[in-house]
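Work Package 4 report. The design task specified in the project plan requires that, given a folded chain encoded as structure tokens, an amino acid be chosen for each position. We show below one input record used in the internal validation round.
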């Protein structure tokens, strides 16, 4: 069924009351609402509303085995969500919440199994965006995930959400662009050794410093193509490889990504380049997601990434790896 997606403006620092109460009303009526967080825009449903939670999987085209994150605005809301909060979990919460860190803990027996993909654990986080906080203050905990079709680049603006989910969800709460523009770091504290499931702006070293112990990183982190686009993204292994790929793709609509440390490639006069983007090696990934969306708007066939500098941030390297086409 095609919905008339409402566009709710919440532009003030504290979130516009009328917009948020309308969003809360829709959530109360088992509808889905997209809202901004400091990482990316999310789409959510009330944690107690199984009908609405199931809609998230349907509109995103998401596998039932992929768990959702529970978003809270206060620690007391973890009651009925998790069964146990370990001392290490409290250390991370005190240091990084509210903020872009998702923590995997044992789930409470009363939490809907559909939220956790049938697992005995649940991911929880406390977003710092004032609009998200205000909305969750009204509604209580929300089961949520990024507000895009599964596999698409993460949505940084309300317009990105509209491009993917218009007519499929009840409303989009517009609260400006996502502040950090990349998904949260995810750490699994339900097992030993603790495991980083996804890198983000909260770095591994920062968490190790707080916990006073080394952390393991999932071998699947960045190991598969994750962001589906209408073009092919390739990463050159060297300058020679970069120029070879440029020459090979001259008959195609071609864009390139270079890095601020090395400067623009200055190849526009030699090759027919439709779009050129420059990223800072220390940026966390938000500009990269914007590039992925813009390149699609420009109808590129190939987006070629220059050799990655050694100084590139671990989170940006991870996002490029997730987006890159695989051989074979």
């Amino acid at each position: 069924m095609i919905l008339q997606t409402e566009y709710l403006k919440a532009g003030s620092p504290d979130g516009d009351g009328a917009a948020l109460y309308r969003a809360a009303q829709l959530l109360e009526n088992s509808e889905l609402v997209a809202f901004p967080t400091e990482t990316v825009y999310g789409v959510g449903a009330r944690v107690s509303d199984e009908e609405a939670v199931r809609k998230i999987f349907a509109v995103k085209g998401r596998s039932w085995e992929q768990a959702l994150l529970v978003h809270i605005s206060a620690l007391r809301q973890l009651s009925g969500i998790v069964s146990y909060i370990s001392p290490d979990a409290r250390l991370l919460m005190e240091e990084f919440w509210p903020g872009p860190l998702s923590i995997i803990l044992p789930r409470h027996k009363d939490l809907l199994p559909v939220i956790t993909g049938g697992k005995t654990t649940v991911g929880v986080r406390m977003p710092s965006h004032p609009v998200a906080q205000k909305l969750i203050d009204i509604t209580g905990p929300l089961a949520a995930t990024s507000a895009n079709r599964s596999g698409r680049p993460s949505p940084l603006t309300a317009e990105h959400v509209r491009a993917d989910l218009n007519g499929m969800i009840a409303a989009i709460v517009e609260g400006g662009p996502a502040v950090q523009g990349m998904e949260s770091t995810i750490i699994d504290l339900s097992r030993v050794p603790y495991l980083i499931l996804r890198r983000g702006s909260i770095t591994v070293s920062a968490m190790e410093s707080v916990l006073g112990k080394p952390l393991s990183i999932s071998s699947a982190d960045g190991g598969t193509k994750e962001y589906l686009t209408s073009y092919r993204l390739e990463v050159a292994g060297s300058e020679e490889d970069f120029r070879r790929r440029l020459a090979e793709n001259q008959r195609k609509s071609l864009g390139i990504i270079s890095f601020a440390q090395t400067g623009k490639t200055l190849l526009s006069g030699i090759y027919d380049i439709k779009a050129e983007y420059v990223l800072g090696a220390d940026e966390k990934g938000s500009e990269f997601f914007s590039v992925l969306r813009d390149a699609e708007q420009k109808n590129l066939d190939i987006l070629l990434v220059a050799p990655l500098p050694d100084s590139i941030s671990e989170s940006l390297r991870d996002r490029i790896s997730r987006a890159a086409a695989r051989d074979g």
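The first helix runs from residue 17 to 28. Validation will be extended to a larger panel in the next phase.
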